[in-house]
Amino acid sequence: MFIAIEGIDGTGKSTQAARLAAYLRADGSREVVLTKEPGGWDGGTVLRELVLGGKLVHPWSEGYLFMLDRAEHVSRIIEPAVREGKIVVCERYHASTLAYQVWGRGLPIEPFDSLFKFSDFPVPDLTILLDMEPEAALARVRSRGEEDAFESEGSAFMTRIRTGYLEQMKRAAAFWTCISAEASPDVVFENIVSEIKNRGII
User: N or C: which end of the chain has fewer CB within 10 A?
Assistant: First the structure.
């Protein structure tokens, strides 16, 4: 079982991914792997720092690094865990790359779709989109302190990314669910648990 947690910056993905993994572990029936992109594998920290540092120049550099990171992440972490019958909870996955690089940066979607299929990357059994208005999400981000390269792009950029997520959900509605992140973290988590129960995941 492979679950991805998606959303624009500030929607609480890290918090909810960690809570979901802990909840699933408490069930005790299956081992749970909590991971993230970019940088969720040994050696991935370097790529994560390059991407989030905001110093890349070529318009495709971010996209190339995200796909490279995913290739190693899938091979080292995700695929072995799924093969062994574990539940994988991943904070960000391919939907983030499309939302940020295609809708956010304006790159064409076809090369990313082709690389994903050519690389035989696994498709999540469920993608949970934590959704909220960009201005509210960015207010949360700013309250945390220093912004990364994406967070500093502002509301218009995050609005395009949010649109990208919602458009992707239309492409594969059966494998996505959208949960409002406007509520308190406890309410958001209750809604996530309710959704995965309704889908028979636990």
Answer: C
